[in-house]
Amino acid sequence: MILQKKIIMGTPMAPAQIAIGDKIKDRFLVKKKLGEGSCGAVYLVFNTTDNKKAAMKVEPFMKSKDDEILKMEVYVLKKMQQSKHVCRLLTAGKTPSYSFLIMSLLGKELSDIRRRLHDRKMSLASVLKIGLQSTAAIHDLHKVGFVHRDVKPSNFAMGRDEKANTVFIFDFGLARQILFPDKDGKLKLREARKKVAFRGTVRYCSLNVHLYREQGRHDDLWSNV
């Protein structure tokens, strides 16, 4: 049995009005839908200026602004552009019915790769390489002051072409900023809340999450083990 997220997502004001063949910002042509989740859909788009494929994540406008999570993903991606373990942020914006984020296209998720293997087992060398790179990706996120709060194999993917051997971390919609600059510009740790809502995936989250405690950097690492 696969345990799903224990999160109640917000209610959209209306479905996102998007069709195959639409052109976004006069250069990204919508080619097909790649998938759909609880917070929106992902589309394959074609950049007509450089003839490259990209991915577009779409989130319909929510009845409550607090339920809009794509803006957090855009914010984190902007902070993470110096890391080799995140995709390139190409553009972001809004249409009359949805918000969107367009980023470089990644390869297969680690969860998909594992499912395709014989006995669903990776070699020791592969496990070590992926473990080191996924930990480095989490470290890069922590360095810019955020915790992911939903670390799991389906939120990591391999790159494409010349980056096919690089592990990428993505899906920052549940991320939370834990470090803020003080008046001198030094990063200070955010004060923990006494009780919080469940954020994450039951199968991979740490004990703290099950106890409804504030998540820190160590919780991301526990999820990655």
UniProtKB/TrEMBL annotation:
It comes from the Eukaryota. Residues 28-225 form the Protein kinase domain. InterPro entries: CK1_Ser-Thr_kinase, Kinase-like_dom_sf, Prot_kinase_dom. Pfam families: Pkinase. GO terms for molecular function: ATP binding; protein kinase activity. This is Protein kinase domain-containing protein. It comes from Onchocerca ochengi.
